[in-house]
Amino acid sequence: MIFKNDINYRKQSLIKLMICVELHEQEIIQALFDDFKKPAFESVATETSYILAELKYTIKNIHNWAKPQLVFPSIFNFPSTDYIYQEPYGKVLIIAPWNYPYQLALSPLIAAVAAGNQVVLKPSELTPNTSRIISKIISETFDTNHVTCIEGGVDVAQELLTQRWDYIFFTGSVPVGKIVAKAAATHLTPVTLELGGKGANIVFEDAPLDQAVEGIINGIFFNQGHVCCAGSRLLLQENIHDEFLSKLQKRMSKIRLGDPLDKNTDIGAINSAAQLAKIHELSSSGQAEGADIWSAPCQIPNKGFWFAPTIFTGVTQAHRIAREEIFGPVLSVLTFRTPQEAIEKANNTPFGLSAGVWSDKGSRILWAGNHLKAGVIWANTFNKFDPASPFGGYKESGWGREGGRHGLGAYIKGAKK
Ligand code: NAD
Q: Distance from the CA of 117 to the center of ligand 1, in angstroms?
């Protein structure tokens, strides 16, 4: 198993993968369109160029990250020379979701390969065209005893989970994450769980309001809200509530739903009938529980699954729309009076994946960042990613981190993290 010990071999494999993904970029964009009408600009921004950036960053740093690390012993062991070896786990299983079907399948795979593991990837059955291209890319790049892709649905995932693995990397929903954790416990297999979220965007009275409006829109309506770290709860300081809401509604009125191939389109379709039904069910619960609904006056196309960008005001923490992941273009608006109350409300969730803070005061941003229980916290921006920064959640949003050096560290026994 040359990939276990030879860092150069792994680097060459990743370079081969990079060439292959560049060659197939147009096919990937087409597959994402065929699977769920993903607009081309989004496919490039969040899928293909994301993976290329991750590949370039990993290829550049692989030697530094994967080589044995020299550590200086204490005075008692002088003059010994100590190394920590970055030993791969061995056989890794990766199970991926549908919402970023290409990015979320390949990103953990890049790290697992860089760390020297053998990998089996099971992409999502709900995006079969993308899964087919991923499988093709993998078979064109890797030896089958190094990396393989197994397409299939829940039954295939369940079958794979009955086997013994040295590491499991799962991205998906909280209920399935719990199933994966139980299966892993049978063999005491270590697991990374990248699960759902209910991110809070906190807007303080001193925030740059127009900039915040753009960030809130991007945070919840991008990718139709099918984003684990979406800012699906908006926490507004009480004295700016009316002004901010009117700016938000004005901006939302300009959002265009429709043909993903039209470059003026902002938001595409909901990915499936089942997902649309879930969004309708949770929205109805919001109305039944007494929140006020407002939807942007968009033209809804006749064919496909559509849901207009929607906000709920008058939401309390007891409402289901404030507690459950909707995974659609629905924003729940709550208010707060003091910074302490904002933090308390933002943290009052079983999730802990993402949060956003909007304020002109650096000290307030740092203070909020120290008190928020979320794996990723953005300040005066939202949904920005970089291969150098790790990603992952607290609480029911999961265990472990992915991305860059931290992503590789997950797949290494005894790694310095
Ligand atoms: P899902 O949990 O339904 O499915 C994910 C994967 O698990 C799929 O490959 C599927 O085949 C498999 N699976 C489904 N049911 C299974 C079962 N009973 N046993 C074994 N395997 C099973 O998730 P999804 O609907 O594909 O994705 C949406 C969810 O993923 C959302 O909750 C979202 O927040 C989360 N997500 C998290 C992140 C993150 O990085 N934290 C990223 C993207 C999506």
A: 23
The single residue listed with the structure tokens 């939202």 is 382
Cα 161 to Cα 155: distance, rounded to the nearest angstrom: 10
List, by residue range, all CATH 3.40.309.10 domains of the chain: 200-379
Q: What is the pLDDT of residue 329?
A: 97
CATH architecture of 200-379: 3-Layer(aba) Sandwich (3.40)
Residue 304: the pLDDT is: 87
DSSP assigned state of 97? -
How high is the pLDDT of residue 409?
A: 85
Residue to mutate, 50, 154, 178, 222, ligand 1, most ligand atoms under 8 Å from C-beta: 154
pLDDT of residue 415: 54
180 CA: nearest ligand 1 atom: 20
* Cα–Cα distance, 116 to 239 (Å, whole number): 54
- CA–CA separation, 161 vs 187, rounded Å? 10
pLDDT < 70 stretches in the chain:
414-417
173 lines ligand 1 (CB under 6 A): yes
| Ligand 1 geometric centre to CA of 74 (Å) | 46
Pocket test for ligand 1, best of 95, 103, 107, 173 (most atoms within 8 A of CB): 173
What's the pLDDT at 417? Answer: 43
Query: Of ligand 1's atoms, which has the minimum distance to the CA of residue 174?
Result: 32
Residue 76 burial (CB count, 10 A):
6
pLDDT digits (tens, 9 = 90+) for 149-164: 999 999 999 999 999 9
What residues act catalytically? 194, 228
Query: Where in the chain is CATH 3.40.605.10?
Result: 2-195+397-416
Q: Which of 380, 381, 379 is nearest to 370 (CA)?
A: 379
- Nearest residue (by CA) to ligand 1, atom 43, is 228
Ligand 1 atom 30: residue of nearest CA = 172
Q: Is the pTM of this model over 0.85?
A: yes
DSSP 76: G
Nearest CA to ligand 1 atom 23: 172
pLDDT, residue 408, reads: 84
| Predicted pLDDT at 38 | 84
Architecture of domain 2-195+397-416: 3-Layer(aba) Sandwich (3.40)
Structural tokens at position 142 = 């890797």
